[in-house]
Write a structure and sequence with these properties.
This protein has helices at about 30-40, 50-55, 85-95, and strands at about 100-105, 110-120, 125-130, 140-145, 145, 155-160, 175-180, 185-190, 195. With about 200 residues, it is α+β, with helices and mostly antiparallel strands. The chain has a single domain (about 40-65, about 70-195), classed as Immunoglobulin-like (Sandwich), CATH 2.60.40. A hairpin with a 6-residue loop joins strand 5 and strand 6. It comes from Acrobeloides nanus.
Length: about 200
């Protein structure tokens, strides 16, 4: 039996040629372009139960194919992501003690997720989002939840709420964020314009 000499394989590393073994990228803010391309989900006004009901009536073999939908545009964020201009975001946070950081539209079920930064003025604090689905004829307060942060100066809070499945024509979602601390309310309402989801 003849054994053939196979060519020896050689492994080289970047540092053998003066390169780095590791490259570290620090991301200090969320890119609005990244959010638009990968995180924002379009709004689908038909809940899954309705689709399954249509399928059970025999109108569709599978509930998600060939369903005619009314001409309702997808939900969109109607403002620039606050942290996309990081210097302005930091300036607002210093001035108002609270600032909406970012918002993401999610689906299944349709909902809004976001983060809020607050200045750490005291240990006891409450952060919430005041939201209206009917042009402020009524509103609800959604409590934000503390998210661990290693910063001693600022705390981060997260919020999430569902979007009603059916909406009247031209109804926008409007909201503002509030930080209660030491019996004082600090508001970020997008300079009085509220944050709007179209």
């Amino acid at each position: 039996m003849l054994l053939h000499d196979s060519p020896k394989k050689k492994v080289s590393f970047a540092d053998d040629f003066g390169g780095n073994l590791v490259t570290i990228h620090c991301i200090t803010e969320i890119s609005e372009h990244l959010l638009e391309k990968s995180l924002l989900i379009t709004y689908d006004p038909f809940p899954t139960k309705w689709l399954i009901k249509q399928a059970s009536k025999g109108k569709q073999k599978t509930p998600f194919k060939n369903i005619s939908r009314p001409n309702i545009p997808p939900r969109q964020i109607g403002f620039q992501q606050p942290s996309s201009d990081y210097l302005r975001f930091q300036k607002n946070l210093e001035k108002k003690n609270v600032a909406l950081e970012n918002v993401v539209l999610k689906s299944n079920p349709d909902r809004i997720f976001g983060t809020i930064k607050v200045k750490n003025l005291a240990y006891e604090k409450s952060v919430f989002v005041r939201v209206s689905f009917d042009k402020w004829q009524s509103n609800s307060d959604i409590q934000a939840v503390y998210k661990y942060s290693n910063s001693a100066m600022f705390d981060t809070f997260e919020f999430e709420f569902e979007i009603p499945p059916f909406r009247p024509n031209e109804s926008h979602i409007e909201f503002a964020v509030c930080y209660e601390c030491c019996n004082v309310e600090h508001w970020d309402s997008n300079n009085g314009n509220n944050y709007v989801i179209l």
